[in-house]
């Protein structure tokens, strides 16, 4: 299948709009991540691809075919669930083989595919066991195996890693990415974990309350967020946000909040010129500062450190700027302690500006 | 395709799509069976209750509207049977609830022989009502019954007493037979509810310093409310309409002492052969049962 | 600090004493309550059993013999092996009917009636499953318009007292010529058993994880296959519980059978047993023996499947 197309798709649950006029084209073989907080509609969208939910308005196309009311067992999709949903009364082999059995593959073929997949996932030794006898990580692999053997056109994954502990999660991410490369199939992956999205995706669809906020590559989403929501959702620790106004100072545009000032570089000034006096939110990501620069007023953040949070390989500093708490990430060359006075040079090419009312970015999109 | 056509085809597809079709198919058997065996008789009874249908003169069946109902509701005999039903129900349901609670408390503990006891207590529930009836009739027998014999041997009475033949004792005795058979199921329903109370609640209470009685009053009892509700509704319904024991033990006597509503309906329908009024009575009973169940759900359910 | 630690050690000491004491009290309470419960439940049944083994002469002793002094099998003999004895003036005079020592010729009806009961009960169970399982699955797992209403409607059909069902059924059955036929019982018992069956099954199905349903459908199961391949095996405890309930209800049912059966062609066990109870001339010990025969099948079933009853009624035991 070359592509999946959502054409103005809306889904109601009673009177609640779970998905609002979604327009999305999923390209063949890409790894697409649906990212957003709980209730944003990402799982509903995934379920509509699978056919588990029926849309209320709009059309969904697989290639050129409308599949709106096609039931799931006819569509050629495979799915991995957050709770794995393994059949408790079947052993691992039968769990993995079930989809093939339902589609009437012959015994030899089933056996071969199941064992191949089991080998690939390192679970050959578990084929006789019941799900209740497996650990969480093992169950997850079985769930993956069950989807893999079908060799579907689309691979759907609904937060498959959220029930794993942190270390396992990182290694599984790598495995999933490898799986995508070797299977050369479209992957659609749902998660609320922005780090996961950034690691895995070819493209990310950020959603909130049923509405698409932005679609783009991880870089685009991270570096050119089109609205406040996207900017704050991605990045850990989250982007620092300061509310103030735009002012003009000697041909340059400036952000000011009380006594704090930040000068915009040339290319941004051009874009912001028309909006002197506008109330805006300034965004500075915690990693976009350093201690090496000259740290002049207008291009730096200065103040006293409220708390230092040592993080092993780096340190986080929390400060207050004009009443707003902000966090910054620094290397450990110069270890700080509470109460230190610091002046941090800001990388002004990486500033973000959002209109306070519309919450949209004023720099791009 | 024009926009209108597409819209129509769309909406038809929605209505009869796979989900709705399969759901419909799955429900069809049960609905059709119930339509025949449940809905039809219910509707037909209602229909009959508006006519004066007496098998003693089957060819004249005038439509009387609500007359049957007013006749029934105005009949003193009817209200007396209502009273007896109420006392039977009150006695039985309270006894069932209390006994079931204690049995459930016992079975909730772990101890050797618990499996044996849980199996054995099902015996009263499993036996046919007929057997239950004849069993207690035999025990209550005035000439040779075990109750008399036991009390005599224990020295509590000095000569045999009439039990079922005594109007003052009839309802409690029948109630005892009824309760004996119903308690096991009630106990299981409450036990099931008890087992779903999270252990953490008790642990928190113990850390807070609550003793056994306090834990019982503040955690167990409130958490059992759904179970109590279910048992209360179910057993009340069962008690109000219970017929078998009244037929087997006393046939409504002695001197109408056990002449409850269900017996009244039986007499009116099958002995007086007045189907119209019999149906009306059944309907009144049904409405009352429904209203009671509703009332219980509303009062207890809201407090949860 | 030291005041606090002495307070603590004092309380620890008191606790150690109390716990040993309360351990023994707990055991005593459990033991005595179990005993009382066992007596409450078993004594009447034991007496029934004992009475059935007593001869006609012994059963009328005052005070009663709790354990038969001369146990006899004559009552059971009459039930299972009695040859039809011609009822003549002579034979009837042999036993004084007024003393209630008479064993009726209808005793031979007991075994055939059990067979009728069996046919009816098994048929009702099978029909309940055929009709109830798909309905329960659909109501629990498929989100369709009218789902909530269906469940309530089904439950509401049981609000009407059974007596009200008799007249309409009677007229239809008479017109169909099915009076005195087991089929009439099978059909009417469906009305009594199906609502409860559906209620139990729906609760249990609802407790099974939704995601299993989704996984099966994505794996290629139609709705029907999902039901049979995935949910049926998992719902086994509730299905066994439902079978047991439906069987026992049908086996024990009295009122409808009373109304719709006339001869041994269709009379079920409760009817035949009841006919003995209302006849004052029949021997007490025989009645009790009939009672014992009547209770054995259901009791055995209940004891055998006891553990499914609790687990079938408890939702939420399965995790995906």
How would you describe this structure to a colleague?
The complex is a heterotrimer of chains A (365), B (304) and C (320). Chain A is α+β, with helices and mostly antiparallel strands and 365 residues long. Chain A contains nine helices and 20 strands. In chain A, the strands form four sheets. Chain A has a six-stranded mixed beta sheet, with helices on both faces. Chain A has a five-stranded antiparallel beta sheet with strand order 13-12-11-14-20. In chain A, helix 2 packs across helix 3 (107-120). The model of chain B has no long low-confidence stretch (mean pLDDT 84). The radius of gyration of chain B is 26 Å and the shape is globular. In chain B, helix 4 crosses helix 9 (167-195) and helix 4 (76-108) packs antiparallel against helix 12. Chain B is mainly α and 304 residues long. Helices cover 76% and strands 0% of the residues of chain B. In chain C, 47% of the residues are buried. The longest helix of chain C has 51 residues, at 2-52. Chain C has 15 helices and no strands. Chains in contact: A-B, A-C, B-C. Chains B and C meet through helix 2, helix 4, helix 5, helix 6 and helix 7 of B and helix 1, helix 5, helix 6, helix 7 and helix 8 of C.
Describe the protein's topology:
The complex is a heterotrimer of chains A (365), B (304) and C (320).
Chain A: E1 3-13, E2 16-27, E3 31-35, H1 42-50, E4 57-62, E5 65-66, E6 77-80, H2 92-102, H3 107-120, H4 136-148, E7 154-158, H5 166-183, E8 186-191, H6 194-200, E9 203-208, E10 211-216, H7 218-223, H8 228-233, E11 240-249, E12 252-257, E13 260-263, H9 266-272, E14 279-284, E15 289-290, E16 300-310, E17 315-321, E18 324-330, E19 341-346, E20 352-355
Chain B: H1 3-15, H2 18-48, H3 67-74, H4 76-108, H5 114-120, H6 122-126, H7 129-140, H8 146-153, H9 167-195, H10 199-208, H11 212-223, H12 225-241, H13 244-250, H14 261-271, H15 275-303
Chain C: H1 2-52, H2 56-59, H3 74-81, H4 89-94, H5 110-141, H6 147-156, H7 162-176, H8 182-207, H9 210-218, H10 223-234, H11 236-252, H12 255-260, H13 269-277, H14 284-304, H15 306-313
Helix pairs in contact in C: 1-14, 3-14, 5-8, 5-11, 5-13, 6-8, 8-11, 9-10, 11-15, 13-14
């Amino acid at each position: 299948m070359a592509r999946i197309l959502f054409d103005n798709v809306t889904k109601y649950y009673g009177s609640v709009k779970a998905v609002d006029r979604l327009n999305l084209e999923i390209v063949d073989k890409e790894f697409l991540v649906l990212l957003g907080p709980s209730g944003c509609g990402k799982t509903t969208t995934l379920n509509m691809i699978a056919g588990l939910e029926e849309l209320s308005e709009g059309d969904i196309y697989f290639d050129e075919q409308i599949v709106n009311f096609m039931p799931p067992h006819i569509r050629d999709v495979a799915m991995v669930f957050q709770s794995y949903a393994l059949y408790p009364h079947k052993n691992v082999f039968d769990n993995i083989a079930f989809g093939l059995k339902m589609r009437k593959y012959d015994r030899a073929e089933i056996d071969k595919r199941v064992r191949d997949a089991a080998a690939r996932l390192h679970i050959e030794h578990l084929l006789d066991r019941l799900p209740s006898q497996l650990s969480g990580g093992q169950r997850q692999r079985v769930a993956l195996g069950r989807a893999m053997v079908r060799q579907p056109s689309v691979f759907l994954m609904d937060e498959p890693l959220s029930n794993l502990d942190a270390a396992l999660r990182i290694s599984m991410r790598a495995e999933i990415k490898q799986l995508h490369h070797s299977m050369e199939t479209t992957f659609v992956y749902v998660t609320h974990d922005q780090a996961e999205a950034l690691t895995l995706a070819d493209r990310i669809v950020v959603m909130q309350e049923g509405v698409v906020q932005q679609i783009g590559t991880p870089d685009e989403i991270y570096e050119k967020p089109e609205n406040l929501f996207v900017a704050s959702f991605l990045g850990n620790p989250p982007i620092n946000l300061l509310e103030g106004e735009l002012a003009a100072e000697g041909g340059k545009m400036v952000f000011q909040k009380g006594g704090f000032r930040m000068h915009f570089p040339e290319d941004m000034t051009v874009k912001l010129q028309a909006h002197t006096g506008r109330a805006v939110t300034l965004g500075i990501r915690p990693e976009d500062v350093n201690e090496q620069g000259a740290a002049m007023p207008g291009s730096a953040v200065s103040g006293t450190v409220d708390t230092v949070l040592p993080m092993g390989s780096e340190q986080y500093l929390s400060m207050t700027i004009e009443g707003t708490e902000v966090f910054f990430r620094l290397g450990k060359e110069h270890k700080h302690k509470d109460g230190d006075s610091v002046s941090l040079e800001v990388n002004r090419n990486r500033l973000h500006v959002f209109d306070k009312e519309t919450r949209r970015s004023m720099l791009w999109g | 395709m024009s926009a209108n056509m597409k819209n129509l085809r769309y909406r038809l597809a929605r209505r009869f799509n796979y989900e709705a079709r399969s759901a419909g198919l799955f429900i069809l058997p049960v609905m059709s069976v119930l339509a025949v065996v449940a809905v039809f008789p219910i509707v037909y009874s209602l229909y009959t209750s508006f006519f004066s249908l007496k098998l003693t003169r089957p060819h004249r069946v005038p439509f009387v509207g609500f007359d049957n109902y007013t006749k029934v509701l105005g009949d003193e005999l009817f209200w007396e049977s209502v009273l007896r039903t109420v006392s039977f129900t009150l006695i039985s349901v309270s006894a069932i609830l209390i006994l079931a609670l204690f049995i459930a408390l016992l079975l909730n503990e772990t101890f050797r022989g618990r499996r044996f006891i849980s199996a054995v207590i099902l015996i009263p529930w499993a036996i046919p009502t007929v057997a239950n009836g004849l069993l207690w009739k035999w025990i209550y027998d005035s000439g040779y019954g075990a109750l008399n014999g036991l009390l005599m041997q224990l020295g509590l009475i000095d000569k045999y007493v009439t039990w079922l033949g005594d109007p003052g004792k009839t309802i409690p005795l029948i109630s005892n037979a009824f309760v004996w058979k119903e308690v096991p199921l009630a106990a299981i329903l409450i036990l099931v509810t008890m087992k779903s109370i999270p252990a953490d609640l008790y642990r928190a209470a113990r850390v807070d310093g609550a003793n056994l009685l306090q834990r019982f009053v503040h955690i167990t009892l409130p958490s059992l409310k759904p179970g109590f509700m279910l048992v209360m509704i179910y057993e009340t319904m069962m008690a109000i309409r219970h017929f078998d024991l009244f037929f087997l033990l006393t046939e409504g006597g002695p001197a109408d002492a056990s002449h409850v509503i269900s017996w009244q309906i039986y007499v009116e329908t099958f002995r007086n052969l007045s189907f119209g009024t019999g149906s009306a009575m059944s309907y009144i009973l049904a409405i009352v049962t429904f209203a009671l169940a509703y009332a219980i759900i509303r009062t207890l359910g809201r407090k949860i | 600090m030291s005041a606090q630690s002495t307070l603590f050690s004092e309380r620890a000491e008191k606790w150690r004493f109390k716990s040993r004491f309360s351990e023994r009290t707990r055991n005593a309470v459990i033991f005595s309550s179990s005993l009382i419960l066992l007596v409450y439940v078993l004594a009447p049944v034991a007496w029934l059993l004992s009475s059935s083994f007593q001869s006609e002469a012994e059963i009328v002793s005052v005070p009663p013999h709790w354990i038969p002094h001369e146990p006899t099998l004559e009552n059971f003999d009459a039930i299972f092996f009695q040859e039809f004895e011609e009822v003549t003036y002579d034979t009837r005079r042999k036993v004084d009917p007024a003393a209630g020592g008479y064993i009726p010729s209808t005793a031979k009806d007991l075994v055939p009636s059990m067979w009728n009961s069996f046919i009816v009960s098994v048929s009702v169970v099978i029909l309940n499953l055929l009709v109830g399982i798909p309905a329960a699955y659909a109501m629990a797992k498929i989100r369709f318009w009218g789902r909530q209403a269906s469940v309530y409607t089904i439950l509401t059909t049981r609000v009407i007292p059974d007596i009200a069902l008799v007249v309409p059924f009677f007229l239809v059955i008479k017109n169909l010529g099915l009076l005195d036929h087991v089929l009439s019982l099978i059909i009417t018992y469906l009305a009594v058993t199906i609502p409860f069956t559906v209620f139990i099954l729906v609760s249990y199905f609802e407790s099974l994880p939704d995601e299993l349903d989704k996984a099966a459908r994505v794996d290629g199961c139609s709705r029907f296959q999902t039901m049979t391949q995935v949910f049926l095996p998992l719902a086994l405890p509730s299905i066994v519980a439902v079978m047991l309930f439906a069987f026992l209800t049908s086996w024990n049912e009295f009122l409808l059978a009373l109304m719709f059966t006339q001869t041994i062609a269709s009379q079920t066990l409760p009817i035949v047993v009841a006919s003995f109870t209302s006849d004052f001339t029949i021997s007490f010990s025989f009645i009790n023996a009939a009672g014992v025969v009547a209770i054995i099948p259901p009791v055995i079933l209940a004891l055998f499947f006891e553990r499914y009853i609790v687990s079938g009624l408890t939702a939420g035991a399965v995790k995906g």
